[in-house]
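Technical note accompanying the year-one report. For the benefit of new consortium partners, we illustrate the data format agreed upon in the data management plan: each record pairs a sequence with a structure-token string. No post-processing was applied to the example shown here.
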Amino acid sequence: MIDVLPSSVGTDGYLELLLATSYHPEIGGRPAEVYTISYRFGGPGEPGTRTTNGTQGIVNVPVKPGQWNTATLTPTDDIAALWPDLQAHDFASFGITLSAVSTGSRASGYFDYLRFARRHNTGQVPMHTQEQLIRAYRRDYPGVTQYQGLEISGWLPHVNRLATMSSWATIRA
């Protein structure tokens, strides 16, 4: 969730939260590159709609200009809708950029109180998600051998158990 105050937005300007996700190989006529999602607050897009331009997804978030809005963003749901030929749970989030974008008149506003609620990262959920991805990729890429695994992050002040999947490793006899 994020709080957004679009003070000056219109048909030629919006606030944007740009989320850089994962690199994916060429598929569906799209090039091999990092996929991004542009969450737009205000601007020319119809609120509540999603569109794609290759590896960039655009999500037009409904907001009321001139007042604080709390927006709940669910990238996994948006990825599944934007690129249904990809496995939505196989995307990382590694870059967030907050901007005001103008194609004409002034665009301005404020972002505040960004918070993350991770639903699928405890107990056996990461391992089950890996199993589902392995089954899906086995159908799509029968010549690729995949291994399920865990990674331990050791930087202080904490140690995290992260489920990792070593994929795209081809073993040839």
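Partners are asked to follow this layout when depositing records. Residues 166-173 have pLDDT under 50 and may be disordered.
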